[in-house]
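Following up on my earlier thread - several people asked me to post the actual chain instead of describing it. Fair enough. Here it is, all 130 residues.
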Amino acid sequence: MAEANKRLELDAKNNSQAYDIEVLNGNDSEVIEMDLMLGVADLHIPQALAAAESAIAGNQPPIMVAGSSSSSETESDDSSDEESDDDGNDDEETSCPTEHETSNTVKEDAVREATGKSRSKKRTRIVELS
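Reply from S.P.:
Thanks for posting it. Predicted structure:
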């Protein structure tokens, strides 16, 4: 890698016009496209993943409705979940999704429908590397 960088630097010094993006020589288009999504992003929530995929595809990410969640709602939901989990039934396979989980899915679907942007087959997918 270091050797390739040295060659590139030397070539850029010898032929600077070939590497100057501000010089148009007639063979170039008037638009310079830059891909800034280089690197690794930590996407821990589905909304972040959807926004990143939309950005890569060149779409505007869906806008979440203001007041869709707040820290006070989350805290109260967490405390009510703890109280309801103490009923002695530890069987998680038969448990239903909580109201909070269900409402997030419904809200995401509503936002996609409202913006008219559903997941298309041509949309770039972000792949998690292990």
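The chain has a mean pLDDT of 65. That should answer part of your original question.
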